[in-house]
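Give me the 3D structure for Plant heme peroxidase family profile domain-containing protein.
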Amino acid sequence: MDPEYVAELKKKSLLNDKSTSLYVEREATGRAAKFFKDFKASMKEMSLIGVLTGTDGEIRKNCAVVN
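Predicted structure for Plant heme peroxidase family profile domain-containing protein (67 residues):
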């Protein structure tokens, strides 16, 4: 994450959550190795989520709202 990217996130109010904001700030100041380690772990966890297919699942037009 470069400083311009972080500034853009702030401008768009994507860092309103204090813990998220602190994490992004820390990663933007040279701790990319930790970010990639965390990213790898989160991708591993997400791979364990059961995917619903056919009539069991749905594609949402808005992720925050159930169709």
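The mean pLDDT is 80. Let me know if you want a second pass.
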